[in-house]
């Protein structure tokens, strides 16, 4: 088929049109932005038309691009659907799920273990990532990601709401009784989950809500991994803001002790994210059913919220 443009150029165009950003398209396809610009130029030269008009960091699609996208997006979607169906025909279906290390260790893997009967014909691989841009969607079927549910071109199902409490190990909790916001902030080391993008709650948010007159101490521990922060709290090395639905089993088992009677909440959370129509496949429907059933079971949070 000599008239077909290169597949790389078509994938770059589809991502740019859908996301309206060369940068976001590059992150989605796991390539550099210059590579995206190069593919778009090649496609424009091949077609003899202008596809996008750049205005700073944003791009605007031309009318020719609108028409082209309408046609090729359906074709690419059909190719993806047929490919997924062929992969699903094996007796033991395979699924690759990407997520953050802490979510994998303290939430996803325990739930999959508890649902072994439902996954006996499904081979599941968990790939850990630090940031969303680390995902190679060519090798991953679905992912558990943090955000507000806005992933254009993907289907999303909310699993865990952002709902945090200060927690620590039992022997350190005994030293802090009676628990007060002032004592929590000033007595034991605070374990900070560092995030330069300020995606989730940190100790400054908790301090503003519950102890606005108390200054945050300078002697603290900072990590970039929620799983590592929980591990440090379990070892009694400090106090962490733990996600209640992630550490619920640890609280119920007595391994962690809540130090406050109200949790801090937002509309953000962890979502099950997958390409369109993936959840209609056997493997996609199976994993969605398992994880959303667990989410529903945990929704009755025993802690008041603010």
From TrEMBL:
Domain HTH lysR-type: 5-62
GO biological process, one term: DNA-templated transcription
Keyword DNA-binding included in the entry's annotation: yes
Source superkingdom: Bacteria
UniProt cross-references to InterPro entries, sorted A to Z: LysR-type_TF_proteobact-type, LysR_HTH_N, LysR_subst-bd, WH-like_DNA-bd_sf, WH_DNA-bd_sf
Entry keyword set: DNA-binding, Transcription, Transcription regulation
Gene Ontology molecular function, alphabetical: DNA-binding transcription factor activity; sequence-specific DNA binding
This protein's record includes keyword Transcription regulation: yes
PANTHER family on file: GLYCINE CLEAVAGE SYSTEM TRANSCRIPTIONAL ACTIVATOR, HTH-TYPE TRANSCRIPTIONAL REGULATOR
Family per record: Belongs to the LysR transcriptional regulatory family.
UniProt-recorded name of the protein: HTH lysR-type domain-containing protein
Organism the protein comes from: Kiloniella litopenaei
Upper lineage: Bacteria, Pseudomonadati, Pseudomonadota, Alphaproteobacteria, Rhodospirillales
């Amino acid at each position: 088929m000599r008239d077909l443009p290169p597949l790389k150029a078509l994938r770059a165009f589809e991502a740019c049109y859908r996301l309206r950003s060369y940068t976001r398209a590059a992150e989605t396809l796991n390539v550099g932005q210059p590579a995206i610009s190069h593919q778009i130029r090649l496609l424009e030269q091949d077609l003899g038309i202008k596809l996008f008009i750049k205005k700073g960091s944003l791009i605007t699609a031309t009318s020719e691009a609108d028409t082209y996208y309408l046609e090729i997006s359906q074709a690419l979607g059909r190719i993806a659907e047929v490919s997924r169906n062929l992969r699903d025909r094996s007796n033991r279906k395979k699924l690759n799920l990407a997520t953050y290390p802490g979510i994998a260790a303290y939430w996803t893997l325990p739930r999959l273990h508890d649902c072994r009967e439902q996954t006996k014909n499904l081979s599941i691989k968990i790939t850990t990532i630090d940031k969303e841009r680390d995902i190679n969607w060519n090798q991953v079927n679905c992912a558990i990601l943090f955000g507000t549910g806005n992933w254009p071109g993907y289907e999303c199902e909310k699993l865990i709401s952002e709902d945090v409490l200060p927690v620590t190990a039992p022997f350190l909790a005994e030293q802090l009784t009676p628990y007060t916001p002032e004592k929590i902030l000033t007595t034991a080391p605070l374990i900070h989950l560092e995030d330069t993008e300020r995606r989730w709650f940190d100790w400054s948010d908790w301090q503003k809500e519950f102890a606005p007159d108390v200054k945050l101490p300078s002697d603290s521990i900072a990590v970039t991994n929620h799983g590592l922060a929980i591990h440090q709290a379990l070892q009694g090395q400090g106090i962490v803001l733990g996600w209640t639905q992630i550490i619920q089993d640890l609280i119920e088992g007595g391994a962690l002790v809540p130090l406050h009677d109200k949790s801090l909440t937002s509309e953000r959370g962890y979502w099950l994210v997958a390409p369109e129509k993936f959840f209609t496949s056997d493997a996609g429907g199976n994993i969605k059913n398992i994880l959303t059933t667990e989410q529903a079971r945990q929704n009755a949070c025993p802690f008041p919220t603010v």
